[in-house]
């Protein structure tokens, strides 16, 4: 194994610190949950997850968004599927979320507070139960 220079160590520390901060949940008010079941991964969910991370960072909202994975959401025909939770917005599950749609969700749903009606698959029952 080659020895690392001080600059290499600093770069490794910075990238590791960035990854750790991205996984922190304290103080974050928005959440993106990407379905990463077998069918989701086959349909491109990994690229979708990466697109959400990139879009959140480019729009400077990464410090306020939890981006995580889950298993199968049960919408195999509409993979990749993504659940989005944001304050003052209904929880929704979007389907057929490719990298372009992921960027659109960050910009329009999380920042612009508007739903992407053509991509909505479901609204979790929690919305129905609230009175």
How would you explain this protein's 3D organization?
This protein is an alpha+beta fold. It has one domain: Glutaredoxin (3-Layer(aba) Sandwich), CATH 3.40.30.10. It is 42% helix and 17% strand. It contains five helices and five strands. It has a five-stranded mixed beta sheet with strand order 2-1-3-4-5, covered by helices on one side. β3 and β4 form a beta hairpin.
Question: What order do the helices and strands come in, and which of them pair?
Answer:
Layout (H helix, E strand, L loop, with lengths): L5 H18 L6 E6 L2 H6 L1 H14 L6 E6 L11 E4 L6 E3 L4 H13 L8 E3 L3 H4 L2
Parallel strand pairs: 1-2
Antiparallel strand pairs: 1-3, 3-4, 4-5
Helix pairs in contact: 3-4
In short:
The chain has 131 residues and is of the alpha+beta class. The protein contains five helices and five strands; from the N terminus they run αβααβββαβα.
The number of helical elements comes to: 5
Low confidence ranges: none
Q: What sequence of helices (H) and strands (E) makes up the elements?
A: HEHHEEEHEH
- How many E-type strands? 5
What share of residues are in beta strands? 15-25%
Overall tally of structural domains: 1
Strand order of the largest sheet: 2-1-3-4-5
